[in-house]
Design brief:
The complex is a heterodimer.
Chain A: E1 15-21, E2 27-28, H1 30-36, E3 48-53, E4 63-69, H2 72-83, E5 86-93, E6 107-115, H3 117-123, H4 127-141, E7 145-149, E8 154-159, H5 163-169, E9 176-177, E10 179-184, E11 200-202, E12 205-211, H6 216-223, H7 236-249, H8 254-261, H9 266-270, H10 274-286, E13 296-302, E14 305-310, E15 319-323, E16 326-330, H11 333-339, E17 344-347, E18 355-358
Antiparallel strand pairs in A: 1-10, 1-16, 2-9, 3-8, 3-10, 4-6, 4-7, 5-6, 11-12, 12-13, 13-14, 14-18, 15-16, 15-17
Helix pairs in contact in A: 1-5, 1-11, 6-7
Chain B: E1 2-4, H1 10-20, E2 24-30, E3 43-49, E4 59-65, E5 79-84, E6 100-103, E7 124-127, E8 140-146, E9 167-173, E10 185-189, H2 192-209, H3 213-218, E11 221-226
Classes of the chains: A alpha+beta, B alpha/beta.
Chain lengths: 364, 239
């Protein structure tokens, strides 16, 4: 019998891309789709996805939940569960366009929700924590339902297919974002399924990732002590939860977070100036289990910005360029040139050197 | 022959180059992989961004890129010349075993990883700017030369150069006192004989990219070599 993908191991690839306007000017999804085309062969059609920030200005005050359902019954049950703790302000099917290149689609819905004040005061939680718990609960306990996007004024769109086809399927030309991230998947150790496509997202954090985490189980065991559940059959989701834990719960800065997950080697730390050396030593001692080893290049999307980061050995490629108010990030320079042929200041950041780009205050 | 690469996928582009059987110029290149892989005695000139593994297994051809090149240029190349007028990505000259690569600007991580040499085949990688970390990782033979021109004030070579080096020679322009080398290599300032040995490659660099030969040779060069012929003797087997 022929073994299907998931039973056999397929060697690695993956592509990531991102663009952000520092002025907060809006871009449709067409450019970021173009970026994935020259990198087509880095994916194998088993997953593609995008995240757009600033796409829901009308509903900007509400959490936008994107969900996959396997049936109408699952949807009805899940909606009833949601209504226990949030008000659903608006619910609709995510608009898609039929294409023979994207098949076996689940039901895809989005809900704009506001946590109920009574529930928040009763549980003594802030609204982000409540939403995070709802997401974990659905993804862990509700078979056939999966929340794949849960931030405000942002959204993740992902499917099994090549990224350019996924972008066409989700009609990304109809959305306008101040930043986009994209991913083309070439799964290595785990099955290609709709929930397993990137970006992986929790609240407004989203991660696209090219690589393979050697430290996955160490990271998973640590992060699961804090209420996160790794249920999606792939390593990347643990990065999303680590980022949420360090940024939202521990209050670290993006730079500090980068120094935890892509910590410099001890020998490199030794040669740093004293103040920096002390800080790096502190972070390595406090969060040793959150060092991510193995090859990775990631782009973290968040409310108002992006952060790109390579593993400390830089075992994956990543290039950055800019043009006017825009900054471009891609696995290959070709991915940048496809978005902006005249991009300038093209460079490859060093391993563990975060590239942080923020939109000007107040414009998004 | 002139090949417009716009919207051609890498198979079509490479088939066009293979069947042309003459010198070619390629324009509008955007990420197509394996260009001129295994190609013999011809001249290929490329504008745009050639994709990964440009000139892999190259077998005598001369490739000239007007701008930047991506990762794994000259992967396992056998002979021939690759000239890049911009910067080059990671793992340039990966396991090359002959031929020459000239990069006007900077190289990414792992330039010259596992270069090797056999008798008269001695590969040469010349980097005009600076190199990323793990330069010459597991180098087993050949010559790597970093000139450190226009480094924007950054170090000529980043962390962990020559990790696992066990053959060949690495030349860095300047005295590199701040660079940390691993234990199994020796580091010394090049004598006149050693400087002379790299002169043809520096001359060629200057000719290709219009650089000042005298200015380059006015400074010292640091030479890095493994500290014995077999630095890993008896580490794994009795040898």
């Amino acid at each position: 019998m022929k073994k299907v993908e998931g039973q056999v191991r397929i060697p690695s690839g993956c592509a990531i891309s991102a663009v952000i306007s520092r002025d907060g000017s809006r871009m449709t999804g067409e450019k970021i789709i173009e970026s994935m085309k020259p990198m087509h062969d880095r994916s194998n059609g088993l997953g593609g996805g995008f995240a757009g920030y600033g796409i829901y200005p009308i509903y900007r005050d509400f959490f936008a939940l994107h969900l996959f359902f396997d049936s109408r019954t699952t949807r009805k049950d899940c909606e009833a569960y949601l209504r226990e703790s949030v008000e659903i302000v608006h619910a609709e099917q995510v608009p898609t366009r039929k294409t023979p290149l994207i098949t076996d689609e689940p039901l895809i819905w989005r809900y704009f929700v506001a946590p109920l004040k009574s529930v928040l005061s009763n549980l003594q939680l802030d609204e982000k924590e409540l939403i995070a718990r709802i997401v974990m609960n659905i993804n862990t306990n509700r078979k056939g339902a999966y929340v794949f996007s849960s931030g405000k004024n942002m959204g993740v769109f992902k499917a099994v297919g090549f990224p350019e086809d996924v972008g066409y399927y989700y009609r990304l030309e109809e959305y306008e974002a101040y930043s986009w991230t994209a991913h083309g998947r070439y799964p290595t150790n785990t099955p290609g399924w709709w929930g397993g496509a990137h970006p992986f997202s929790l609240l407004d954090y989203s991660i696209v990732h090219n690589g393979e985490i050697s430290s996955y189980d160490a990271n998973r065991r640590f992060i699961e002590m804090f209420g996160y559940q790794c249920t999606l059959q792939t390593d990347t989701e643990v990065i999303t939860y680590i980022v949420d834990y360090l940024l939202r719960k521990q209050g670290l800065t993006l730079e500090e977070t980068a120094s935890v997950i892509a910590a410099p080697f001890w020998s490199t730390i030794e040669r740093k100036p004293e103040a920096e050396r002390q800080q790096l030593l502190y972070l390595r001692k406090i969060f040793p289990s959150l060092l991510i080893t193995g090859p990775f290049s990631i782009v973290l999307g968040f409310d108002g910005g992006l952060m790109a980061l390579n593993d400390r050995l830089k075992l994956r490629s990543m290039v950055v360029g800019e043009k006017n108010d825009k900054v471009f990030i891609s696995s290959e320079e070709a991915g940048i040139r496809a978005m902006e042929p005249d991009a300038e200041n093209i460079y490859a950041p060093a391993g563990g050197e975060p590239v942080i780009v923020r939109v000007k205050e107040g414009v998004f | 022959m002139h090949v417009k690469a716009d919207h051609l996928d890498f198979r079509c582009l490479n088939r066009a180059l293979q069947t042309a059987n003459e010198d070619c110029t390629v324009s509008g290149c955007l990420g197509q992989r394996f260009i001129a892989a295994g190609m013999g005695n011809r001249h290929i000139s490329i504008s745009g961004i050639p994709g990964n593994a440009l000139g892999a297994y190259l077998n005598g051809a001369r490739i000239e890129v007007t701008g930047n090149a991506q990762d794994a240029v000259g992967d396992t190349m056998n002979s021939g010349t690759i000239i890049v007028h911009g910067n080059i990505g990671d793992a340039a000259g990966y396991a090359m075993r002959g031929g020459e690569i000239y990069v006007k600007g900077n190289a990414g991580y792992r330039a010259g990883v596992h270069m090797k040499a056999y008798e008269e085949r001695v590969p040469v990688l010349v980097i005009g700017g600076r190199a990323g970390s793990f330069l010459g990782e597991y180098q087993a033979g050949g010559i790597i030369l970093v000139l450190g021109l226009n480094t924007d004030g950054k170090p000529l070579v980043s962390n962990f150069p020559c990790t696992g080096m066990h053959g060949g020679k690495l030349f860095l322009r300047g005295n590199c006192t701040k660079t940390l080398f691993p234990k199994q290599v020796t580091v010394h300032i090049a004598d006149s004989e050693e400087k002379k040995s790299i002169q043809p490659y520096v001359e060629e660099y200057c000719r290709l990219f219009d650089a000042d030969l005298d200015a380059i040779f006015a400074s010292d060069f640091t030479v890095v070599e493994p500290d014995s012929k077999n630095p890993y003797k008896q580490m794994y087997v009795l040898n």
